[in-house]
């Protein structure tokens, strides 16, 4: 039988990264491609105890729950955010099935066909995918090491009247960039002047390497109910729980909860109750410090090896946190074409092109340093160096 | 700030049932309103052990997983369905965050604005809500005790060219009805003749009271790749896990998986792995038999008390499974208006009106018998009988 699909299927793309991962996972390849946290760091025993408590303490906890999320978890989230300067009532929080769902539900209640969304370029590719699946137009704003270039941003706001500005301002995926405080404040000023909503995606904010933290979240600087802020426990506890949250203006959160009700009734509440116990009984901040230290060490190992690659024109910025190096190669090297050769040599990365909204730079790649041990990073980077040096010679 | 929402927000409705539940849960009310399984029957110890095993056996299981679902779970689902005559390859299965998400993802990839969906009347209200949120038109087909009336169905197929026929053919919500084998086969014949997809929603199929099972699922009778079949573990294990699945033509399942990737990456895989262990280590069929026996007993208690209500014109059909009585009262009684009085008297139900696609019968109500003990059922039904008898006298 021939099936008639919806028009919106045409605007759905499969994730380039997830498709690449499927291929890579089949072989014996050292992968810098995924955005995976290190499994060895999962707090297994604490997670085990938290689930045990959640399951055995109160059988009402295993019943259907509220769409907005488990009340005790929303309270705990409000308290955690408050410590970081983001003060919001628990009723302004919606617990989601990972922060990916926050992006989707927000899109569902906000965007009509043809709406404009401004983003950095490159940016988180799965956000672009969600936005485009709602038949919106995603437009790139120029950016530099400190964030979006404000002149270009203002010009595009005036000209295009965007519905939303999407940013990953802290240890961004894919570039590892951190927006300066000044840019954060100016972004808010422009958003307020022109009445544009900001969507702040912050999955990596906890993963800082410096003693000095990144500037405060944009949401915590917002005085005009302009910002939706989303984060997740996928990088700080375990991804398999799929627990994220979004906080922001109650009017938007309330409508998103209504959309969520139709989508999946509510987020897995075994995991929500387990998280409540974990946050009470386990020193998650100490655990996060261990993650930071481990990732910082791995980042330094990768940096050291990047520095030994004999390739004029190779550039990167040392990340101050997060999970990725963003590497620019000489213009002559197309990283999408090179990937096959790299995989054959036993090392993988993600080509940079899919992260671009427009004008992809084909000579870029994203390298993850969190999911491989220092020894594997060394081994993989030696392979990658060879691949790059040979590619350069051939050209 | 004033926010500009999407057009589709206008087509979103909050669930009448969930809104009612919020009110009821605040007071000291015996509730026959929800569709909740009995918490006392949750297999706590088996669930606890299954999660313990899932969390401690393999830390890769706590990493990001495949969008389609955990391979071992899809295999186990294929085996379970095969025993019930529904033979499908694991690759034709998508694990979802409850069967509610299966309805939503299916809608997302299939429906355009203005598409027609045929349903029974009344039917599962949260399905109507999802369909309408995609700006479709849901049209009711006449039905009787055995399922849809085929003449009306064929006429509407020819006249309206529907995209899909949505059915809950086994112990349906809200009516408790079971489609006869003949109607199931004829539905397939019509769907095949006119090339219409069938969506079979089967959350209650396991909850049979008779020795004799209901007729086979429509999906298991399908020889032409016409049927999408969805079910869930919410009624047989615990709802809080939010694990459902959908099985059907690979072409549709594949596109739904792509939509799911953008929606929430994948379903909570701690719970998926736990379910794999539960299905291996625990006699779930024996457990389901205990659930059946308990619910059957409660249904009989409620029936006995329904029979004592002194109200000419009160009608119901004894359910052969599932969780609900569907009660029709004299035309003069409006159950929506009566609910306030009932709640004040300490008993609650769901008015029938929201379950109707069109022409709601205002003198209907849905009574749940699974979430109250026999004693509470007696107490609540005595209160309800008084409320009904007095309402009748006043009119």
Automatic annotation (TrEMBL), chains A, B:
<dbReference type="InterPro" id="IPR015421">
    <property type="entry name" value="PyrdxlP-dep_Trfase_major"/>
</dbReference>
<protein>
    <submittedName>
        <fullName>PLP-dependent aminotransferase family protein</fullName>
    </submittedName>
</protein>
<keyword id="KW-0808">Transferase</keyword>
<dbReference type="InterPro" id="IPR015424">
    <property type="entry name" value="PyrdxlP-dep_Trfase"/>
</dbReference>
<feature type="domain" description="Aminotransferase class I/classII large">
    <location>
        <begin position="41"/>
        <end position="384"/>
    </location>
</feature>
<dbReference type="InterPro" id="IPR015422">
    <property type="entry name" value="PyrdxlP-dep_Trfase_small"/>
</dbReference>
<keyword id="KW-0032">Aminotransferase</keyword>
<dbReference type="InterPro" id="IPR004839">
    <property type="entry name" value="Aminotransferase_I/II_large"/>
</dbReference>
<dbReference type="InterPro" id="IPR050859">
    <property type="entry name" value="Class-I_PLP-dep_aminotransf"/>
</dbReference>
<dbReference type="GO" id="GO:0008483">
    <property type="term" value="F:transaminase activity"/>
</dbReference>
<dbReference type="Pfam" id="PF00155">
    <property type="entry name" value="Aminotran_1_2"/>
</dbReference>
<keyword id="KW-0663">Pyridoxal phosphate</keyword>
